[in-house]
């Protein structure tokens, strides 16, 4: 009770601590004790209450935090959508410019939709469907009808997937539902059928299949189910209507372009269904019908007419060479023709397929987890060659090099780390530079006349080396790696790298440049070590000839010295087990000579000063020690 | 007891395509076969497909009929129809010489698209009930059929004469052609026997 009162007093806004303490201190010691206990209890209670409150609000904290992060992501989406919108607007501006050029008087009469309609319908498409931007580049294209369809298995008639279909004035586009819709984008582009050759079949209801229709486009036969009889009717009618419009448009163009021809083979005379209706020839420009007629003739070669379909077949059969042959043939031919709308339209059809082919070829070069990495350079070369022929040398080059990078990294990872650093590094170097050499040879073979790409190769090689060096450094230039091992590794690497210059790639300078700092440090450290050793030994020197105790030990000593390069060691030995040299000198020799070797191994002109300085300093230190000893009274007595 | 338990949908589907000039009675034949109805009023077909479960020599099979438009102008679209078919009923009207002449061109196009001389194909002279208006002599049609090495049958969608016959005969041709290509590729279909008894016997063994 009293506690509650006290709490109220303490939490009063006008609470004056001094006054309170004054009052309390008047009551004497006991009262103070009592008050202290009370306040203590109050403090504990408050702490507990605070704790409880924190727990209570904890879940709320989390929720709020979540809310904030959601809000954040939404803001991000919003900004993303705004940029998208902006790009759409700019694309549309571009499109409207190009379409104005192509709209011909003949089309004007037939095409009712205004520019605004065209733009709005296209923008809907762009907003909703992912990956369809390329197909919307065709001028004058607009949306006629769209709706949801359920695709059925053509054999068993069981549902396969839901699709959204968009009928445009000359093509049918199918888009799959995106599982996770992102903003307005609900669909992903799936396939595109040219209305020209598309056969639409009304499938009569049987059993489970209702409101269905089929589209036949060799080699595809696809069955779709509409929601209701009305929806299906609408689809069929729209198809019919759109096709008719397109036919009429094409015919009008043709009639206008070839007035003389229509009298010979009248396409309108339908008593004979086999008047093979050729491709849309050309929009009219009435002021020069003569030249246009010639253009139409130019396009009416049988092989040219069949070319788009042949291309499809080649692509489906993965006969990439054949496909590119066809494309080149077509391009050669079209280049010889005057530029006209008809040619442009035909080119558009080919372009669409080139795009497809290019994508497939690029996929060939991309390394995906499900494909074996061991396809090897020869497999890649095939795709690269075709891409180059398609004029995509830059992409081909980039993909090819990326492919090689992955390959190289993969094979480097296969090398097992062994206890022996030098051995491991040697293996790594050999592998890396062999791969590099192979890549180089492949590259020269694959891009024989594309010198622009060679620069890319050099840049790539430099990057690769850079990356490899970071691995190399982490293996070699770390503490405690003996200097001899470091110099061995560096030498190995230089040797491997030098081999590259045999095939025309000189990268040693890059290596030296990148390693300079580390090498300097290694030299410095090794030099310092030597100096320390010299000083250390000097302190313990007793300046006595070495006694090896027996003949064998002496023999061993002589051999080891001969191995180090001191061939006349016999001069300094006497008796059965003595040498005139001191312990200090022997140890110095044994450490200094290998140090010299290692230094000379790692030597490059760049480090000349540093290396010579190290040599001289150490040698001087040792000589100084000898001089000091010579003057030292302790030793002079013994010598005397 | 003897027969293998099958799914609701019989596995085999025979895809038949009706071809011929406009107005020769392709749809009438199809509708008569499908629904036992003769449709008097003429309305040009665009392209309709039908499916029906039938009993062919004791086996449940499905027939998928694609009734094409005689007036289809675009060769490329016709190609797409023809590519999807396994057997063809090439129909003309015995009362219209032009429609008979057109069959040659249909035949040529089918052979070009399917690239197979032995594709299941039947020449069908429809409207045999209109004997008094006959313009195509039986001998004329038969000689063309012989030349192509295909059967010739005259039908009447109106009286239902030979309607079932042409569809069933064509399905048998398709069946035989499928078996031949399966045997060629080394796969033997279990129920390829001609004799019913024999077939049952085989199934027994398989089970």
Explain this structure.
- The complex is a heterodimer of chains A (640) and B (207).
- Chain A is of the alpha+beta class.
- Chain A is built from 21 helices and 11 strands.
- Chain A folds into 5 domains: 1-102; 116-257, PH-domain like (Roll), CATH 2.30.29; 302-401, Exo84p, N-terminal helical domain (Methane Monooxygenase Hydroxylase, Chain G, domain 1); 417-506, Methane Monooxygenase Hydroxylase, Chain G, domain 1, CATH 1.20.58; 522-631, no CATH class.
- Chain A has helices at residues 2-10, 17-26, 29-102, 105-110, 115-128, 229-257, 259-264, 289-299, 302-316, 320-335, 341-365, 376-389, 393-414, 421-446, 451-476, 483-502, 508-540, 551-564, 583-602, 608-631, 633-639, and strands spanning 129-130, 143-152, 159-168, 171-182, 185-194, 199-203, 212-217, 220-225, 545-547, 573-574, 578-582.
- An 8-stranded mixed sheet of chain A has the order 1-5-4-3-2-8-7-6. In chain A, strands 9-11-10 form a 3-stranded antiparallel sheet.
- The longest helix of chain A is centred in the N-terminal third of the chain and has 74 residues, at 29-102.
- The radius of gyration of chain A is 43 Å and the shape is flat.
- By secondary structure, chain B is α/β, with parallel strands linked by helices.
- Chain B has one domain: P-loop containing nucleotide triphosphate hydrolases (Rossmann fold, 3-Layer(aba) Sandwich).
- Helix content of chain B is 39%, strand content 21%.
- Chain B has a 6-stranded mixed sheet, sandwiched between helices.
- The chains are: A alpha+beta (640), B alpha/beta (207).
- Chain A binds chain B through residues 155-157, 196-204, 206-207, 209, 214, 216-219, 221, 236, 240, 247, 267, 270-277, 309, and chain B through 9, 13, 21-22, 34, 46-52, 66, 70-81, 83-84, 98, 102, 105, 109.
Give the secondary structure arrangement, pairings included.
The complex is a heterodimer of chains A (640) and B (207).
Chain A: H1 2-10, H2 17-26, H3 29-102, H4 105-110, H5 115-128, E1 129-130, E2 143-152, E3 159-168, E4 171-182, E5 185-194, E6 199-203, E7 212-217, E8 220-225, H6 229-257, H7 259-264, H8 289-299, H9 302-316, H10 320-335, H11 341-365, H12 376-389, H13 393-414, H14 421-446, H15 451-476, H16 483-502, H17 508-540, E9 545-547, H18 551-564, E10 573-574, E11 578-582, H19 583-602, H20 608-631, H21 633-639
Parallel strand pairs in A: 1-5
Antiparallel strand pairs in A: 2-3, 2-8, 3-4, 4-5, 6-7, 7-8, 9-11, 10-11
Chain B: E1 13-19, H1 26-35, E2 47-56, E3 59-68, H2 75-83, E4 87-93, H3 97-114, E5 121-126, H4 138-148, E6 152-154, H5 163-184, H6 196-206
Parallel strand pairs in B: 1-3, 1-4, 4-5, 5-6
Antiparallel strand pairs in B: 2-3
Enzyme class (chain B): hydrolase
GO biological process, one term (chain B): signal transduction
Protein name (chain B): small monomeric GTPase
